[in-house]
Specification:
The structure holds two protein chains of two kinds. Chain A is built from 13 helices and one strand; from the N terminus they run E-H-H-H-H-H-H-H-H-H-H-H-H-H. Chain A is an all-alpha fold. Chain A has one domain. The longest helix of chain A has 28 residues. The radius of gyration of chain A is 20 Å and the shape is globular. The N terminus of chain A is likely disordered. By secondary structure, chain B is an alpha/beta fold. In chain B, the strands form four sheets. Chain B has a six-stranded mixed sheet with strand order 5-6-7-3-8-9, sandwiched between helices. In chain B, strands 12-18-17-14-15 form a five-stranded mixed sheet. About 4% of the residues of chain B have low confidence. Classes of the chains: A mainly alpha, B alpha/beta. The interface between A and B is large, with 46 and 48 residues.
Chain lengths: 278, 439
Amino acid sequence: MPQPNTKTLIIEPSQGWVALKLRELWRYRELLYFLTWRDIKVRYKQTLIGGVWAILQPVLTMIVFSLFFGGLAKMPSDGVPYPIFSYAALVPWTLFANGMTQSSNSLVGSANLIKKVYFPRLIVPLASVMSNVVDFVLAFVVLIVMMLFFGIVPTEQIIWLPLLVLLALITSLGVGLWLSAMNVQFRDIRYVVPFLVQLWLFITPIAYPSSLITNDLLKLLYAINPMTGVVEGFRWALLGTQTAPGAVILVSSLAAVILLVSGAYYFRRMERSFADVV
Amino acid sequence: MSELALDVQGISKRYYIGGRVEAYRTFRDALTETVSAPFRRIAGVLRGQTHAASNAEQSFWALQDVSFQVKPGEAIGIIGRNGAGKSTLLKILSQITEPTKGRAAITGRIGSLLEVGTGFHQELTGRENIFLNGAILGMTRSEIASKFDEIVAFAEVDKFIDTPVKHYSSGMYLRLAFAVAAHLEPEILLVDEVLAVGDVVFQRKCLGKMSEVSGQGRTVLFVSHNMGAISNLCRRTICLDKGRIIDDGDTEAVVRRYLERTNAELPQDGYVDLSRHDRGSWLAERHSQLNWVRLSDGRGRQSGVFAEGDPITVEVGFSLGKQASIIQLGCVVSINSSELFTVPSPEYDSGYEPGDFETRMRIAPNYLRDGGYEISLKLFVDGIRQDTLSVITRFQMVSNLSADDTSAYLKKWVSGPLRFDYGWDPLAKTTQPAVESGG
């Protein structure tokens, strides 16, 4: 909350790496709330089926995966029915992928705002990522329905779920910060993002189980992709797959935090030129 | 408070103009350049270098070594020609962009009105936009809620408050946008000329609000081309030219010297090519612009000098770079940069494809008395200001009566720039009191 302050604000050219100014970010939390709320409110305006889009995307992917990977290719699925095996992964994946795509374009999309008024720019990609949480909740409801249908009772491991969602958000924001800041200067990023999402989908164990990898060292290497930890964690917490992903999640979390922190510093470093270049 | 509200020390700002200075010399150079440039750039990005920082690009200084101090409660006008760096200065002080050199210390909560309606979303209702816009301008939710009724009343949009703003007329949209901004209560207020359109009554309201703010002892920095407004609101004025402060002091003196300089340089042969006019840095997002303006008399003769009995036609040409549904122009006629009257065009709303357009504004004969007048033009596309050129040409009105005409002598005795259909009746002898005393 920007309050009347008698503190003196100093404006001068910044050099090199600069502080993240998290305290200031906190003061502007209401703006974060309003921008997130705007993104949610506006997203499905003037569409025919509105919020159904949030569900359609993972559900249709799940159906295609089930037909081709589950049905035709007889992909193993860690002892649970293939449709729910893939859907439990697609729900956090969609959260991550949409968050990353939207935050990458967020700064360019808010050019008008950035050129006209000051606020911590970090709020822009952050709001883009947060606005996807609503879509995630809708898709998650479908997941619960499917679990009821397949008669799967979650174990007490489900308490870890919020942390796994957080891990997905951190990863999404981390990548989003890097890409959105780059996108301001190089509109190439616009073409990179869809391609990146596609590749990332294949290197994440969504259509297949990571148990296909048997070498322990390779498995940890594989977990450097933070979404591996998220997806494996989701299946373990909800469906009770016997994959014991502790080490994997640990490596993934570490990678995600590194991505976020480096992304935030890179973003802040580039921030000084946003208003001039965007 | 003895402390300074604003202490600006040697602020400079460099902008880069895209495009390389040197052309490729040979095809081979071009080829190697195409292959190696991306790698060099990527390496630069990874080092955190900004793209613009490469030396091969041209740069210009929008501000150079600007220093001044403002005491709390002072209202300061900032004047200067198009592209003098006024807006850049406000952008730096409101932290939108960083200075390249220099330092500014600001004591007190700062609020800026660089453009009203920032962050308004077409799909959201008036109510929702008030909250969103308020938050963007730095107000808290409770602050906005407590002023909500006041804002709605000020904007006069009560009936449409739950209608998406895309259905608003551009006047309503602007009124609402200004209303939110006007209810911001910072200790230091930065204002860029925002009183661009809107009907006369509303413009007056806005100016009233501004003087109210400065009357409350808050610090105001006011950028404007309207010398009348500057003189009313500010006691001290700073004049910028090509990014430097060239004058700073008592408003009256600064404005007078500014006008002397400008008047000497203004074209007055009735035609101005506007396409290469300096417009400053805010126009990065511009897609449409004013191209030329031509003044002519009733017989289509181009001129900068008119007789009082001549009709005056202001022809304006502009190019539209994007498909648009509504186009509106505004023409301001001023004397010594103080607005005399503004004539907004109708909202041309039949839908337009990109291309060149022209239209004209007419001033009927016998309304302007002899003297010098200036013209400023504005172009709005779909409610967004695309171009503003202040005081771009001037014309002279001359009396068409010969000096030995006795009635001409009497007419000269009338003063003031405007002439209406006024006149006196012949004298009559009073036979009874005009006003009967009440009994």
